[in-house]
Amino acid sequence: xxxxDASSAVAEAFTEEWGRVVATLIARTGDWDLAEDCxxxxxxxxxxxxxxxxxxxxxxxxxxxxxxxxxxxxxxHQRMAxxxxxxxxxxTIAADPPDEPDLTEHRDDESGIADDRLRLIFxxxxxxxxxxxRVALTLRTLAGLTTAEIARAFFVSEATMAKRLVRAKGKIAxxxxxxxVPPAHLLPERTGGVLAVxxxxxxxxxxxxxxxxxxxxxxxxxxxxxxxxxxxLMPDExxxxxxxxxxxxxxSRRLARVDGDGELVTLEQQDRTRWDRGEIDEASxxxxxxxxxxxxxxxxxxxxxxACHAKSPHPDATDWGRIATLYERLxxxxxxxxxxxxxxxxxxxxxxxxxxxVLVEELEAAxxxxxxxxxxxxxxxxxxxxxxxxxxxxxxxxxxELTSSEAERRFLTSRLEETAPL
Length: 422
Prior knowledge:
- By secondary structure, the protein is mainly alpha-helical.
- It has a domain of 85 residues: Orthogonal Bundle (Rna Polymerase Sigma Factor, Chain: A).
- 67% of the residues lie in helices and 0% in strands.
- It contains 18 helices and no strands.
- The protein is globular and about 75 Å long.
- The termini are far apart.
């Protein structure tokens, strides 16, 4: 049996090092499946050896070395097999022996990107791939998210997402899309996909779609780190600064979002003295810099909404009217049903639950979020505020049926109990 310390170390190493190990191997071998396979073998080796030998001082370096050794062996055996086949077929081959696999350190200075993981994101976000394929492939390869987790982020079935991942990898192989970072003047054409990847990566960390914990801090930290690199790389791109600002505003509330027992705390009930004022100040500066360029995109608008919450000293001081207006502007550039749902919530807070309920019911009738638990949780909350207890209970039950987050299930269960018949 794996000791608890070793087991925890392997789990922590997976969340912190998976992307680095896979990105390093893809950069050296150009083989996506080989990189994932060898990374998995390295972690399996850690499960076997760390309880016996102890956790290494530098787990990431240990895992990378083991994975690279596995990749070297696989490539060497593949080369030898190819040589034997050629010899058996009496093919004429070059007199010079084949090169050994080159797994030495490598950097492409043309783009100015010195981080393998960010380089991998730009590679995944090749314009020849459909946008959803770019994002899904990066989340799978870089962040180590499961196919099920990615499917939930896209509101599709696991089988559908698995097919998308296969198609994306197949496109890279059959179209011979090179593993390389484009020169600086071509980076903007991939920026949209890169921003989307970082946005979804942060969202999965900020509110985990499954599992015992509401927040996966490791994913949030990694998304923020990469967003900082991207902002430094593209200082004239206001949406990069806007996205980093949004992340920092949201991340500033992390300590107040759950209580001592790990239970979810709603925004209006959070202890605002626990919000990170340093991150809020940094986010405010980034947002001001981005908005000064006069082209507010979806990430800047979302950051502006987050700023309304972050700068309110208490819930009653929140300018919900401004938030509702910002969501209306966001809908103009990002007409997504989730944005419509958030606008409905803001309208309910600004103008009363009746107004919000009308918007939620319109969204429900459109049928775009029929499997989204927060649609029903929002409807239930509005009905609860209107003292329509029986209808609220039915909506809470439906929300519970759809959520995979244990923290959210506990919260919804408590709200369901509050609406029990008197």
